[in-house]
Amino acid sequence: MMTFLKQVRRAAAAAAVVFGCGVGANPASAQEVIQIDGSSTVYPITEAVADEFNNQNEGKYQITVGVSGTGGGFKKFVKGETDLQNASRPILEKEMADARSNGVEYVELPVAMDALTVVVHPDNDWAESMTVEELKSIWQAGSKIAKWSEVRDGWPDEKIKLYGPGKDSGTFDYFTEAINGKAKVGRSDYTASEDDSVLVEGVAGDKNALGYFGYAYYVENQERLKAVQIDAGDGPVAPSEETVIDGSYKPLSRPLMLYVSVASLERPEVAEFVNFYVKNGADMARTVDYIALPDECYGMAMKRLKARKTGTAFGGKSEVGVKAEELFERELTN
């Protein structure tokens, strides 16, 4: 039987999913359309929330969820073209400036945590762990690494087939920042896709492949993939809920965010949906194999939402290594 998450993946391939406009749904007026776009990583959580929200409201609202990537989604959000933005990295300075120039204010709501997971084929019996420096040697701009033997002595003299997110992806931004030291800077000669399912299939089908994507995509396919432990200097650490929450899985753990337009929150249907999202975010995250924030974080998110506190806690940078408890302790920057 197809799992719920696999159904989400299949739906994501269509690039935009509409809820509440099928047989038996009430016709939605223009004012009742809720438009969401952005990260393919955050998409499964938002899709699950939208599905449950409309189940409880008997299809009263029409909700569209696009998957154009974090960067692609922000291009629309900062122009006021969408109501909500799924983001697998924080909003950047250029996007903040565009939002200001267009009069778009937003509330930043962390909704879950993620572990960017480096994966290999299950038959790969050499790359049990890799250091950050080894990953950088492979993925940095201008890298000439082509074979496993060039990464570490004793590894096979076989060509590495690389898979990773495309350049509109927040996952690409975050990984390049964490591993290469600068966001958006990395080698380009790899198989890139905004659809993480494509990356899963690529690595699962090649013994010499190496790729990376969000933790939930690994969990859903762990019988076909193997996670590489990451050594940032304190020994190898595997991705897991525990190592992400306690901060030991570094530097590839990250928060996942939802940005909400303040103008859109004036519409009752949007406010109702976002309130539902925050109240049920932990359960929905777990439903699709994501790492929920500590319970108290959702309470703080609700306070931020009700107070309409605008801005970002990240100062316009794709910061790495942020722990869950820090997400609501910082001053917000507009």
> What general outline do the C-alpha atoms trace?
globular
Please give the largest β-sheet: 6 strands, mixed
The end-to-end span amounts to: 47 Å
Q: How many domain regions?
A: 2
Do you know the CATH topology of the largest domain? Answer: D-Maltodextrin-Binding Protein, domain 2
Rounded average pLDDT: 89
Q: What is the gyration radius calculated from CA atoms?
A: 20 Å
Residue share in helix: 25-40%
Low-confidence stretches: 8-15, 21-31
Supply the helix-strand structural class.
Answer: alpha/beta
The CATH superfamily label of the largest domain reads Periplasmic binding protein-like II
Output the CATH class name of the largest domain: Alpha Beta
CATH architecture of the largest domain: 3-Layer(aba) Sandwich
Order of helices and strands: HEEHEHEHEEEHEHEHEHEEEHEHHH
Q: Which strand order does the major sheet show?
A: 1-3-2-4-14-5
The number of distinct β-strands equals: 14
The total count of helices amounts to 12
Strand content: 15-25%
Secondary-structure blueprint:
Elements (H helix, E strand, L loop, with lengths): L3 H9 L3 E4 L13 E6 L4 H14 L5 E5 L3 H8 L6 E4 L5 H9 L4 E10 L1 E4 L8 E3 H8 L21 E5 L4 H11 L10 E3 L2 H9 L4 E5 L1 H6 L5 E2 L1 E3 L4 E2 L3 H5 L7 E9 H4 L2 H20 L7 H13 L27
Helix pairs in contact: 1-2, 2-11, 11-12
